[in-house]
Amino acid sequence: xxHRNPTSSILWNLVLLTAGSVLFALGINGAVINNSFIxxxxxxxxxxxxxxxxxxxPSLWYLIFNIPLFVLxxxxxxxxxxxxxxxxxxVITLATQWVxxxxxxxxxxxxxxxxxxxSGAGSxxxxxxxxxxxxxxxxxxxxxxxxxxxxxxxxxLFNVLLFGLTIxxxxxxxxxxxxxxxxxxxxxxxxxxxxxxxxxIVYVISEKNEAIAKTFSEVLRQxxxxxxxKGAFSGNDRLILMAITNxxxxxxxxxxxxxxxxxxxxxxxxxxNVIGSTFGKRxxx
Length: 285
Description:
Blueprint: H1 10-32, H2 41-53, H3 58-76, H4 79-98, H5 108-127, H6 136-147, H7 151-166, H8 172-194, E1 199-205, H9 209-218, E2 225-230, E3 237-245, H10 247-260, E4 265-271
Antiparallel strand pairs: 1-3, 1-4, 2-3
């Protein structure tokens, strides 16, 4: 019997895109626009245009700016990613237009922190789907596919240009608060993306690794791999046991290792994400 991964279902991804878009809109309307902040990415560009022209609304400018990107995206990104991203972009447009809420935060620093956390959490939830909210995501993926430019570098270059342009229009207080907002938002996105995805890589060096591996398999139902190695000092061949686990299982592995060999060396490394096998699925654009 084949079990489908629920994270690849249409309903699950629509829920993520909807919830993330509404949360993003709360952050934008609740703290960002009220304080004339500039966010990163394409939405930051739409806010700059809105502030300077006072025409239409940020959501409508966002829709307008996305139209040429989605026309190009039709030819350069996968159809599944295109349709999910189109849905995400439309939900963000509607949510930022109709979800009105003011956090009533007067202090600029507090407003930047609150706006960054809420909008960043929304963006993170959106990016946990197999789509996006349009904007710079579409452009970055097209450039990555066409010219092998790193997605992170594209975002950084765009934001440097955006804030370089913003400096000539706004006071240092607004610029600094906006930079704080973007930093907090980016950090929040990383935490949301790593939530439930972060793994621990465990290395065990022991003379009893075969017995430890048997305990992992039979008692903890934990897979493991032997890596052939050679001692730098002794020159003796040995096996290093490697396992990939999570925070909940980590302590059980530690106890199992030292119950078998109290002189073992137990090494733990953090891994942001593990893709393949029974772990995370690769995001296909």
